[in-house]
């Protein structure tokens, strides 16, 4: 039950942070640079599966060890690395295999993935420590 509560808290934090990015900050960015590659509508099942797996990885590999060790600084470093590695997997594969994949999007996404993981970890750990 404890793990489920942790997962749900991280899920809510992640969605809140990422929706600000996707819905406000970078809304037009992706359309401008990837419009020729974008589907007319989001494949929500695929997006949801990504989110669920990403959040599971963040919880298992970063947040739970941080809570167990009591080191917020180490957690933030591991979160940054986790975000960089996961977002690099997607973006660098696209850069390597897709025609006209913009390097600017790769740089922005790697920066965002790193920041997203770090911010979600920071907020989640601070909340979870209070429980």
What would your notes on this structure say?
The chain has 131 residues and is an all-alpha fold. It has one domain (2-130). It has 5 helices and no strands. It has helices spanning 2-25, 27-34, 44-69, 72-97, 103-130. Helix 1 crosses helix 3 (44-69), helix 3 (44-69) runs antiparallel to helix 4 (72-97) and helix 4 packs antiparallel against helix 5. It is elongated and about 45 Å long. The two termini are 13 Å apart. The model has no long low-confidence stretch (mean pLDDT 93).
Keywords:
85% helix; 5 helices; 0% strand; 131 residues; elongated; mainly alpha
Please indicate the percent range of residues in DSSP E strands (runs of 2 or more): under 5%
Order of helices and strands: HHHHH
**Discrete helix count:** 5
Termini distance? 13 Å
Total strands: the figure is: 0
What is Rg? Answer: 15 Å
- Count of the domains: 1
Percent range of helical residues: over 70%
| SS class | mainly alpha
The biggest beta sheet is recorded as: none
- Give the low-confidence spans: none
Shape: elongated
Average of the residue pLDDT scores: 93
Short description:
By secondary structure, this protein is mainly α. Helices cover 85% and strands 0% of the residues.
